[in-house]
Design a protein that fits this description.
By secondary structure, the protein is α/β, with parallel strands linked by helices. About 40% of the residues lie in helices and about 15% in strands. Helix 2 (about 50-60) packs antiparallel against helix 10 (about 290-310) and helix 4 (about 105-120) runs parallel beside helix 5 (about 140-150). The structure holds 4'-deoxy-4'-aminopyridoxal-5'-phosphate.
Length: about 425
């Protein structure tokens, strides 16, 4: 892969061409034949052929409901789904398979914890600590819960670089704090938060911590035992898997003590009109027929990432982020939003005198997919006094050519709109 544009950075040591060949969506042309430059990976990532094939094969040959059938197909499907759970366990280095709950995604995982753990523990006057860089899905469920319980949301401030104020964080932790809910990586700034330290601070006061790993799981190795977090959430569609499938990891003792959430099939042990007893973990939290193909597809995605080498992929992304940062900051009138010392794969920026939406629309006509707007982090936008940003977010299949195309596109935008 040529590292055109910047002689100061060496080409990342990864066979990106071979990787790109695995992703059919990357090889299309848009509009008047322009090749797609996909830089919206923080919203969702593209899928390798092995994931597409696995989902198709499931529906073509194995389709059956799980956990209930004695027949061949049902047993096959159940085994495949439970193997997927084991793959997720390994991906997160969780202690037990029973700690892995399948959900629809990060949003549902957080809502599950709010509705069960939160509702059963929160009382009037209690507090939940979040940060100013949270995605709406790690704000609104807690806000709704606080309103219901007469509790209060406390917010860790963010500095101009896009780093959390850890001093302020420690001051927010009191005997009233019942939970800290924090993103591992910010979807808008790319900041990697010092979660290990922050978890230790919270645990020092006996406060459990939920990590929103939606943007971390696609980029960083995640070890829930080393982190010692109490809950960890991520979405399948951002880790090269299907939409509609996600994960809630929870420490067994916490999950065990939590009441169930949705009622229905599979989450019960026995039902009578007098009394229902609930299934064991993790099924207690998995009411109804799940997204079986999604879980199985997620396994194929995680296997793919593992086979390609998580460390090698991350190294490539780091080099690409450095390259993109250098090239973007050289553009006159461009201001990066989010310059944390620990960052991954997200470049949010504004251009003097140009509305992000106009820039995004023009880039799109050039075949370049970026995201514009508030990125579901309106409080963070308010903190920076911005209506929105342009966000380019990278994955391991992106190249310096993609970055160069973005830079050329931005020069074009400036020449037309500035
Ligand atoms: N948290 C973060 C940090 C995110 O980036 C996102 C998705 N943009 C979510 C939560 C929500 O994920 P999902 O829509 O897959 O539930």
């Amino acid at each position: 892969m040529p590292a055109s544009g910047s002689p100061s950075l060496t080409a990342p040591p990864l066979d990106v061409d071979a990787i790109r060949a695995d992703f059919p969506a990357l090889h299309q042309t848009l509009y008047d034949g322009r090749p797609l430059v996909y830089l919206d990976n923080a919203a969702t990532s593209q899928k390798p052929q092995v994931v597409i094939d696995r989902v198709r094969d499931f529906y073509a040959r194995e389709n059956s409901n799980i956990h209930r059938g004695v027949h061949y197909l049902s047993q096959q499907a159940t085994e495949a789904y439970e193997q997927a759970r084991e793959t997720v366990r390994r991906f997160l280095n969780a202690r037990r398979r029973t700690e892995i709950v399948f959900t629809r995604g990060t949003t549902e995982s957080i809502n599950l914890v709010a509705a069960t753990f939160g509702r059963s523990r929160l009382e009037r006057g209690d507090e939940i600590v979040v940060s100013a860089m949270e995605h709406h899905s790690n704000i609104v469920p807690w806000q709704m819960l606080c309103q219901e319980r007469g509790a209060r949301l406390r917010v860790i401030p963010v500095d101009d670089r896009g780093e959390l104020d850890e001093e302020a964080y420690r001051r927010l932790l009191t005997e009233r704090t019942k939970l800290v809910a924090l993103c591992h990586v910010s979807n808008t700034l790319g900041t990697i938060n010092p979660v290990q330290r922050m978890i230790a601070d919270a645990h020092g006061l006996g406060i459990p911590v939920l990590l929103d790993g939606a943007q971390a799981a696609p980029h960083l190795p995640v070890d829930v035992q080393a982190l010692d977090c109490d809950f960890y959430c991520f979405s399948g569609h951002k880790v090269f898997g299907p939409t509609g499938i996600g994960i809630l990891y929870g420490k067994e003792a916490l999950l065990d003590a939590m009441p169930p959430w949705q009622g229905g099939g599979d989450m019960i042990e026995t039902v009578s009109f007098e009394r229902t007893t609930f299934n064991e973990l993790p099924h207690k939290f998995e009411a109804g027929t799940p997204h079986i193909a999604g879980g199985i597809g997620l396994k194929a995605a995680l296997d793919y990432v593992e086979a390609r080498g998580r460390t090698a992929l991350a190294r490539h992304e780091d080099a690409l982020l450095a390259y993109a940062t250098e090239r973007l900051t050289a553009i006159e009138g461009l201001h990066l939003i989010g310059t944390a010392r620990e960052k991954t794969s997200v470049l949010s920026f504004v251009l003097d005198g140009i509305h992000p939406y106009d820039a995004g629309t023009l880039l799109d006509r050039l075949g370049i997919a970026v995201r514009t707007g508030h990125h579901c982090t309106q409080p963070l936008m308010q903190r920076f006094g911005l209506p929105g940003t342009i966000r380019a977010s990278l994955a391991f299949y992106n190249t310096t050519d993609d970055v160069d195309a973005l830079v050329d596109g931005l020069h074009r935008v400036r020449s037309l709109l500035a």
